[in-house]
Amino acid sequence: MIQAIDHQEAVNRAFTRQSTRYDEEDRANPVLQDMRHQVYEHLDQFLKPGSHVLELNAGTGIDALHLTSLGHRVHAIDISDGMIREIEKKIATHQRSGMLTCQQLSYDQLNQVEGEFDYVFSNFGGLNCIRNLAEVTRHLPTLLKKGAYVTWVIMPPVCVWELLWIFKGHPRQAFRRFGSEGVLAHLEGEFFRTYYHSLSDIRTAFGPSFEFIKTEGLAALSPQPHRGDFPRLHPRLYATLRKTDALLRNNFPFNRWADHIIVTFQYNPPI
Ligand SMILES: C[S@@+](CC[C@H](N)C(=O)[O-])C[C@H]1O[C@@H](n2cnc3c(N)ncnc32)[C@H](O)[C@@H]1O
Is the per-residue pLDDT at 180 higher than 80? Predict the structure, then answer.
């Protein structure tokens, strides 16, 4: 328990330090922009007009703002003081009160959320900060309308780009995501464990009340977000890799082996 609190405090401090420059770095990174665009295309397949969305680990509220601009209502939660401050600024600057609300909360405490939702969304690996995803999913049935969708964007254990480290003579780096004890992340001077979740682990965490709908790879063959300079340095190769991703990302193994996977479930409890 104390370990879990220490972990969450380290995560809070790290992301709070990052929060004030988060949006600027996001905007300046074309790889991240393309990845976000692909996530939005995925969501568009399932979001019904005027949905009430619960966003987990919402960060500074970039996606929450996007969703409200499409007419959806969003309740955004995040564990970090700094991230919540950035969302509050967006609510004020973009006059989103009523459409966008936020709450500082860890996603394993969803019993403290009020409301009934059509959609639960989590983007860009926030859920890789927890070892056991069932601690999140166990609260969902009380929050969801029947037929609601859940889309999570999570980092899986196998990433083609990282496997290439084998050829550079760094096998530990190539297989770093496989460790059962997770990987020690170092962010903004803080150390905390991150955990990589396979599609089968994710399906197990959801259980039989959730129907698995779809998975697709995000940056399966195209570069990872920390290679934000790649499109400028290799524009033709980047365009080719993105096109190849688009052709393969719905098929095995590229819908499971990628930097992130986008996974969607539908809440269909037995009658
Ligand atoms: C990589 S950022 C992604 C933020 C946002 N989803 C985006 O797409 O920009 C990860 C976020 O997860 C949040 N986070 C990590 N652990 C969390 C937890 N236990 N509960 C809620 N948020 C958490 C962090 O504070 C951070 O804002």
Answer: no
Cβ of 11 below 6 Å from ligand 1: yes
Topology of the domain covering 2-267: Rossmann fold (3.40.50)
- For every residue of 192-246, DSSP letters joined together read EEE----HHHHHHHH-TTEEEEEEEEESSSSPPGGGTTHHHHSHHHHHHHHHHHH
Tens of pLDDT, residues 66-77: 999 999 999 999
C-beta of 128 in contact with ligand 1 (< 6 A)? no
Residue ranges covered by each domain of the chain:
2-267
CA of 240 to the centre of ligand 1 (A): 31
pLDDT of residue 266: 98
pLDDT-derived band of residue 2, with 50, 70 and 90 as boundaries? low
For ligand 1, say whether the CB of 10 is within 6 Å of any of its atoms: no
57 lines ligand 1 (CB under 6 A): yes
Residue with token string 């083609």: 160
What's the gap in Å between 71 CA and the centre of ligand 1?
23
